[in-house]
Amino acid sequence: MKIGIVGAGKGGMAILNTLSNIKDIEVSCIVDRNVDAPGVVRAKELGIRYISDLEKIPARDIDIIIEVTGSKSVADILRDRYGSECKIMDSEAARLLTILVEKAEETLMALNGQVRAINEADKRIAMEIRQIVEGISNMDDVSNVLSNATQASMNYIKETDQIVTYVNKIANQTKILGINASIESARAGEAGKGFAVVAREVSKLAEDSESFAREINKILVKLSDEMKSVVSQIERLTELSEQQVRASGKVEDALEELKRIINN
């Protein structure tokens, strides 16, 4: 459908802006004596023909002429000159159209404002997501360090446990040595009294070493349990980090879909 607009004031420009965005409508020309009228300036920007003389409207190539001036004399000229060649929309109908167009423009401006707000929010959310992902990456690094440190500690615990086992063996051998020394001092009678003192000290040393080894072993067991708990928490932290990464990815996908819908 081809349209001609007579009157290039604010109303004519509003109609021009709206109709020029509709796929099945072509604005063929805009008519006004004022070359500096806002509708004329806009028409030139859009590459639409400008006519300053009512008598030169190509009515045969136009389906509807929209009269926006509100002038009765202009309306009469249009009806008399072109009424038989195309349809004439008078100023009252044009005024209604102008009101609808203005409301549409207001709605569009409000919608554009909302779109801009959404885009700004999208940028902020995207930045927050990137920071979350970076934070998760740092958490992964810390988890890896803790995991390595925990594994090293478990290895140290195993080595220490071996040492304790060795100390127990020495304590048992020392205990046997003390028992043998006591037996020999008893056989020696009076001459073996001094040796008996040494035997008692050796036995005491063996008992102390054995007791000390038991205490160390208890500590190692507790430490091992704590390390297992740390490992469990690290694994849980890693799992939570992976969940956050997946959730962040879903949010990013949703934002991309929202932008695609808005832009289309």
Overview of the structural elements:
The protein has 264 residues and is of the alpha/beta class. The protein has 2 domains: 2-89, NAD(P)-binding Rossmann-like Domain (Rossmann fold), CATH 3.40.50.720; 115-263, Helix Hairpins, CATH 1.10.287. Helices cover 75% and strands 8% of the residues. The chain contains 5 helices and 5 strands; from the N terminus they run E-H-E-H-E-E-H-E-H-H. It has helices at residues 10-19, 38-46, 72-82, 91-188, 193-263; strands at residues 2-6, 26-31, 49-51, 64-67, 87-89. It has a 5-stranded parallel sheet with strand order 3-2-1-4-5, sandwiched between helices. Helix 2 (38-46) links the parallel strand 2 (26-31) and strand 3. Helix 1 (10-19) packs across helix 4 (91-188) and helix 4 (91-188) runs antiparallel to helix 5. It is rod-shaped. It starts with a strand and ends with a helix.
In short:
The protein has helices at 10-19, 38-46, 72-82, 91-188, 193-263; strands spanning 2-6, 26-31, 49-51, 64-67, 87-89. It is an alpha/beta fold. The chain has two domains: 2-89, Rossmann fold; 115-263, Helix Hairpins (Orthogonal Bundle), CATH 1.10.287.
Keywords:
alpha/beta, 5 strands, 5 helices, five-stranded parallel sheet, rod-shaped, Rossmann fold, Helix Hairpins, 264 residues
Q: How are the SSEs placed, and which strands pair?
A:
Blueprint: E1 2-6, H1 10-19, E2 26-31, H2 38-46, E3 49-51, E4 64-67, H3 72-82, E5 87-89, H4 91-188, H5 193-263
Parallel strand pairs: 1-2, 1-4, 2-3, 4-5
Helix pairs in contact: 1-2, 1-4, 4-5
